[in-house]
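Changelog-linked ticket: uridine-diphosphate-N-acetylglucosamine example.
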Amino acid sequence: MKLIDIIAGARPNFMKIAPIIRALEASRRAGGRLDYRLVHTGQHYDARMSGDFFTQLGIPAPQVNLEVGSGTQAEQTAAIMVGYEKLLLARRSDLCLVVGDVTSTMACAIAAQKLCVPVAHVEAGIRSGDWTMPEEINRMVTDAITNWFFTTSEVANDTLRRSGIAEERIHFVGNTMIDTLLANMARLQPPPFWDDLGLTVGNYFVATLHRPANVDSSDGFARLLAALGGATRGLPVVFPVHPRTAKTLREVGGVPDNICLVEPQPYLEFNYLVKHAKAVITDSGGITEETTVMGVPCITLRDSTERPETVTIGTNELIGTDPAKLQPALDRLFAGQWKRGGIPALWDGRTGERIVAVLERIL
Ligand code: UD1
């Protein structure tokens, strides 16, 4: 048997590993030679940011939890590297599989490669070009020491080719996050506050904001909230508050009446809210992929995206971080002028199986 470490650390990782684990288990039942060890780094540790996702998505309990918890970028990176190196020295694996672009992704790739354990990166090759985002540094460092690249788009393939990666190391497989979305579409369920907030299909917004550029200054964030409250014309704006955002919110006086602050939502409730919203307003990357597949208009408060196909093919539009840009964008939406959008190639729900088929070949 060959042992694959599957690394997960933060919320956006969990929906990406679920279909890979499902496909690995199916392959093992069919007599395959791949075994896996699920390693949770503990970067996210609250039930709302982590545990709920394991339960709802049927992800088995991690065999190992490095329990690194919070810290600065360097503290988290260092703690994850030390913890994962110890694990590899105690029992070496044959491959370290990392997903996405969080600190855990980069830290485990470095620890593995230094012990000559090969690395596979799922969601490789995407770039925002914005070096002020920690995720961009994580992407570049991870891809610089990755052996096998699993990609979500042709743009990512081209970026990797241009950086000199040989064609046979690039595997265009599609999007595991979309595997999870499609597999759970029929299970999506309204959150308990659906009736209390008077939500009806197509008559409310969903907002998520957690990037330092939008939420780390209380003055800037207060201006953004005021603009959001006004531009949405009194319709409810359901705003699940990320722990990082909660810190700034405590310094912001109040929020406009139509902004409804709620806890971070579990997967099935969050995507139910997205699916039935008039539009989503966000600074996340992953959510723009989900809105594209669900055909829900998405307004992104960022200047760049590492997922350009959500704009060129999907329903997403970048408006930058100036709160004044919200009003004209929402006016176009209310006027029924938002683009419709299509679905990028291979975002079809079968990416986990494709990844495992490649792993069976290369290991
Ligand atoms: C991380 C990821 C980001 C992802 C986001 C989604 C990196 C560099 N960033 O950012 O790509 O979009 O997760 O959630 O990896 N905290 C809690 N409970 C938790 C986790 C965090 O209270 O379970 C607090 C921490 O103490 C910290 C803050 O939230 O103060 C930020 O957490 P951190 O993991 O540093 O980065 P995120 O902003 O969550």
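Closing comment: Example verified and attached. Residues 23 and 30 are 11 Å apart (CA to CA). The chain has a mean pLDDT of 97.
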